[in-house]
Amino acid sequence: MKIKELKLNEIYKMDCLDGLKKLKNESIDLIITSPPYADRREGEYKSIKTNEYVNWFIPIAEELYRVLKPSGSFFINIKSHCSKGERELYVYELVIALKKKLGWRFVDEFTWTKNGVPGRFKGRFKNGFEPIFHFAKSSEIIFNPYAVGVPMKEESIKRANRKATGLTKNGSGFAGMRRNETMVNRSLALPSNHLHIPQKSNQYTLQSKHPAVFPVELPEFFIKAFSDEGQVVLDPFMGSGTTAIASEMLGRKWLGFETEAKYIEIANERLKGYADSK
Amino acid sequence: MKIKELKLNEIYKMDCLDGLKKLKNESIDLIITSPPYADRREGEYKSIKTNEYVNWFIPIAEELYRVLKPSGSFFINIKSHCSKGERELYVYELVIALKKKLGWRFVDEFTWTKNGVPGRFKGRFKNGFEPIFHFAKSSEIIFNPYAVGVPMKEESIKRANRKATGLTKNGSGFAGMRRNETMVNRSLALPSNHLHIPQKSNQYTLQSKHPAVFPVELPEFFIKAFSDEGQVVLDPFMGSGTTAIASEMLGRKWLGFETEAKYIEIANERLKGYADSK
DNA sequence: CTGCACTATGAATCGCTAA
DNA sequence: GTTAGCGATTCATAGTGCA
Prior knowledge:
The structure is a homodimer of 278-residue chains. Mean pLDDT of chain A is 84; it is low at 162-186 and 203-208. Chain A has 278 residues and is α/β, with parallel strands linked by helices. The first copy, chain A, folds into two domains: 2-148 and 190-277, Vaccinia Virus protein VP39 (Rossmann fold), CATH 3.40.50.150; 150-188, no CATH class. In chain A, the strands form three sheets. Chain A has an eight-stranded mixed β-sheet. A two-stranded antiparallel ribbon of chain A has the order 4-5. A two-stranded antiparallel ribbon of chain A has the order 8-9. Chain A contains eight helices and twelve strands. Chain A has helices at 16-21, 53-67, 90-100, 154-165, 179-184, 217-226, 242-249, 261-277, and strands spanning 11-12, 28-33, 68-77, 82-83, 86-87, 105-113, 129-136, 150-151, 188-189, 194-196, 232-235, 253-257. The interface between A and B is large, with 46 and 47 residues. The structure holds a DNA duplex (19 and 19 nucleotides).
């Protein structure tokens, strides 16, 4: 039985596999990460070869499974690159392995659309989206859909009110949702598994110094919908700390690993900047 | 050596595997289809079981490979359903099998975002996107990206013109693209692999009578970008004929198979309606 | 202060050339 | 033969600086 040796709200300069071994079983509420992609960022991180990627990730995913609570969720953002005019398949193979070899439940795939980096390629268009895969350990996960409700269109509100006068027969009809949540939030529409978040040009921000940051809106969305206040969010590949910032903003505790000292520095600066601005 | 027994611009009431056998090697320029999804619409079509889906599709994909020209492309729209709170994996397995077992080149994945069918589910949101997978036989495929160019933003046009005054040193640098194509189309920006096409409410249209139609904009996009005028488009699962309509609209010949007489009737009505409206 | 011009850059990829 | 490096290409976005 491992013990929990690590304090919260810190980024540890370790390989994530070493770091994860220091965490207790079922001590984490939510995992959000974007690991290094295969064959990218040579020089920055040690580049993982495409055909070794799944085997490289499996021991990490095993540890993630161990430390996550049964009510927790694991979100992973990763996209295959193209090589010789074909998109690689390792991301699909990874998803299949996580379920079939390690027993993760594959809840859903999100598509995050953004403004693609321009480029003309032989036989295809620039890339304008990335998938985010949602895994869990059980069917009873924390889920607060109305925390990410979007304002309804005018017309839809009217229609909803019309409908609401003739009360529906069954209370809720929806698993895991209390009826009054629906009523209270009449003006909020539920989002879908499509997230449109244009990538910002981070030219003069601290964020820009890390080569592969996702926008803060991404972890924000998943933290709101799939965790409660005060819970613990883990990012095993912390990079410049976007997951930590989002956690701070939303009143969650957090924890992360990162091997590059310079990114830890950037992340701590960003966190300090956020704390000062409050 | 098979001979081509079938006339163009017709929907044949056959199982697509039987129909495909009547087509000559390399006689088709473009394939666009949305096959029946696994475990759906029982009663309408014979439902294909999730765990048998890949093996069911492989012989069809082999025939598609045989009839497609080396310069052709194959687009397949298919999305896994959810079962017991998990999204099934057979679509990823299919993509992997098409490449690794049958030798198809996997060019790219498109994401088609739409307005999701409302519904509240346990632990996940409504579905707001479907993938479309692009396969080919060679790296030398027909590709007309500017046929689907979207108007550039005002500001980008100005910038482009400024740049164009100081001509770049090398002619093109980009394979498969003639320089003047770029210049002539200065006011068009290339799209990405993200297509946003809200699904129309087809409640009162002929289209609605088929349970699983994709919007005509979808085949339109692929026909424009990946085929030339006068070429032959095949849809092995024609349904209510959306691929045929799009082909007619764009001056392509077409051909399709469909086992249900009532959908062939609907498709022919739609085609007649289109012809009359011209 | 506003408007416009200009610049930097974002998980990119390909073909060519030199080694 | 193979590989590594370099230049060229593409545009949405945000920030800077000047008129």
